[in-house]
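=== RUN LOG ===
request id: a7f3
mode: sequence -> structure
chains: 1
length: 270
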Amino acid sequence: MPKIRAGITIHYEQQGTGEPLILIPYLAAEHACYAFQVAEFAKHFTCISLDLRGTGESDTTTGAYTTETLADDVAAFMDALGIGRAHLFGLSLGAAVSLWMAAKYPAKVSSLSLHGAWTKSDPFIRGVLESWRIIARGLGNVQETVIRGLFPWCFTPELYAARPEYIQALSDFVRSRPAQSLESFLLQSDAAMNHDVQAQLAHIDVPTQVTFGEYDIVTGGFIDRLKGGIADCETHVFKGCSHAALYERVDEFNGKVLEFLQRRARAQAA
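=== RESULT ===
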């Protein structure tokens, strides 16, 4: 399993060929969280999935985390691998980090594919995140916090009712992955709670895709703010989905993202 020193030691996995596509995980997750996407994306792109600091097999550090400093980690990671420019993909926290990458390191970003993104944590998002932190402290187990605390915000009631075996399979998958420590979860969720890239949106000048689930009450309200703030931004809403359309409508989600990535890659190559 490859690791590279980029200020901190970062673990990553690489599959496929073509232009580089860096997949940035969401809160409490590590690189394998996008397994349903990489299998398809790697047919067209070199997919590089990394573990952010404090997750998976990357270094755990003390001190505050911010979405901006997590973006600094990704930029240093690209330098260490010799990647000059890449497409970026991320859900939720991964989207927040990607926004900072495009704002702070525009020369490194070919395009953004953002899902469940938000510009600045408001009282509602902070309240949701604080509830997850309370659950995590009470359980003392981040994996169970994800399953019991985060899943109901990420999936629709209809999915729970129609496909309980699928929810169970996703739960088993979470439990099978390297466990994030409670301390790292609290630091990472602090970064999400304090996320604020609103003032930087006007500086983002790369092709951007923004998607949300129709019933995403966590971040869905930010679609107009992102579309209005980023010059070259296209949006899509996945019907019948909550915060994690990439699990609820796998084929539809992958197809929509690949259509954007391939179209933008062709335009830049022309």
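=== NOTES ===
The chain has a mean pLDDT of 97.
Residues 201 and 229 are 5 Å apart (CA to CA).
=== END ===
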